[in-house]
Amino acid sequence: MSGAETKLRLVAPGKEVRLTPGAAGVLLRILLKAVARAKQPQTAKERQR
Length: 49
Hints:
47% of the residues lie in helices and 0% in strands. The protein has 49 residues and is mainly α. The protein is elongated and about 40 Å long. The two termini are 19 Å apart. The model has no long low-confidence stretch (mean pLDDT 80).
């Protein structure tokens, strides 16, 4: 990275949530993609947002 870190924030409910195995897999893929995207350098267009 170029010195600036991108932070990823996850807002989760205060109580336990039960997920089906399929839903848990989808959530895991979403979180992994979000982390990977946060690690990539931002383009000029994304910084303008």
